[in-house]
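re: that chain from earlier
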Amino acid sequence: MEVKQTFSEKLKSELCSNIYSNQAQKAILYSFLSNLLSISLTNKGEVWELKSQFFFIIKFMSDLFTELYDVKKSVMFTGINKINNHRVYMLRVSGNFQQITTDAGLLKKPVDVIKTTAQMKGFLVGAFLSGGSISSSTDRRYHLEIRSNNVAYLLFIQTILNKFNISIALSQRRNSYFLYIKKSYDISDFLKLIGANNSMLEFEDTKISRDLFTQMNRLNNLDISNIKKSTSAGNKQIQKIKQIMNTEIYQKQSKKFKIFCQLRLENQDASLSELSKLFLEKYNIKINRTSINHYVIKLKKI
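^ sequence. v structure.
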């Protein structure tokens, strides 16, 4: 049975299929390694390890290493994550780490390495691939987050997004920290910024459809509410009309007032605007809503 991709998975898959400049590639690698790198010492020397529940992310990172540096790599399945029951894949890399560290600036602070717009976008791509998630495009609550155990790493991401006028907040969950975005337009801007155009369009399309449905539902509820109000008002007016119809005071009223009473008896649910139209259609009398409301007030006084 084929398992349907989540919106997060589709988004990450799109990011891994995009083409990046050399600057952006190094920024993606710098960001991903800063967030998820583990180092093991073996009898053959130092080994870098990167883990993910998505095989396509591990392959993407493997291809990045191949594109940028002369390294030896191996990819393996390491088991099932007991927390979320997802498969876990690992990329193991060995090579001239001193050269990689120097070239990618891994020992430097992000602010000293990530300076151009291409580098900033690449850094955000690496951050989302290594620790990001987003709620389903059909979810009523919008939520995008990036997780890390490194607060300085998240604060730098926040600084980048502030430069692009995207609001993102920092919070803590158990022993880790995360940045999150709740506003739909900020999420759209973030997706566009990192180059996830297809995901952004899907998100926007679903949002528009949901907002349209919500608006139509509100209008429908408003119509029902107005009908109930009109019916209730009409009921009360009919009761008052029946009380006065056989009285002398009623007989002394104007022709238009009596027509209003007759039309109300015949049209319990009609609004004042609809009664105005009936005046014209049945009696060829032009009368506006305000004048009919005057008769309603007069009826209450009588």
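The longest strand covers residues 71-80.
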